[in-house]
Amino acid sequence: MPTDRGLVLSRTGNVVTVQVQPQEGCDSCALSQFCVGSKQDTPTVTAIAPSEIRQGDLVELSVSDSLLLKATAIIYGIPLVAFLVGVLGGYLYAAFTIQSMRTATVLPVIGGFLMLIPGVFISRKSGKRLNPTATVVRKLDQEATSKP
User: Fold this and answer.
1) In the chain, which residue ranges form alpha helices assigned H by DSSP?
2) pLDDT tens sequence across 9-40
3) Contact of 11 with 50, CB cutoff 8 Å
4) How many domains does the chain have?
5) Which of 27, 32, 68, 134 has the lowest CB atom count within 10 Å?
């Protein structure tokens, strides 16, 4: 389960708002387009926290592996399935209609890439609906984690 560090900004009941500290790999991550933190200037995320966590605490939080798996399936799976449907559709269309050999070869490729376009849009729209809620794993010692 991947973890991040952040500073608790506010608390409402058992839910806290945490300002996530950026990490080195965030800019190059393929999931960054769906990451809540990358959509804001000051990346914040909501998290479920134990009662001892207060505003101003430095905490370590994590997102469940199932949510990461779901996001990965949406990001990569939907476009892949759309591409394969386009290739198969192009192949079937070419097979059942009298086409020249050149057209029969190119049609599945064109169909695949044409279906890839809506697949990407659908995956982006579906990914934006994900509402990740993290969990505070532990409170960090602020003296040990602060930089000199």
Assistant:
1) 65-72, 78-96, 101-128, 142-145
2) 988 888 888 888 776 666 666 555 555 555 55
3) no
4) 2
5) 27
Length of the chain: 148
Are 73 and 148 within 8 A, CB to CB?
no
- From CA 86, how far away is CA 109, in angstroms rounded? 8
Q: Which of 64, 52, 53 is nearest to 17 (CA)?
A: 53
Q: Domain range holding 34?
A: 3-63+132-145
- 81 shares a domain with 31: no
3-state secondary structure of 52: coil
Residues 103 and 138 in one domain: no
For residue 119, what are the contacts with CB-CB under 8 A and spacing of at least 6?
Answer: 78, 79, 80, 81, 82, 83
**Spatial CA neighbour of 55 closest among 12, 10, 4:** 10
d(CA 41, CA 22): 11
For residues 79 and 91, what is the distance between their CA atoms, to the nearest angstrom?
A: 18
Instruction: Tell me how far CA of residue 37 lies from CA of 22, 28, 33, 94, in angstroms.
Output: 8, 14, 9, 46
Residue located via tokens 């080195």: 24
pTM (predicted TM-score): 0.63
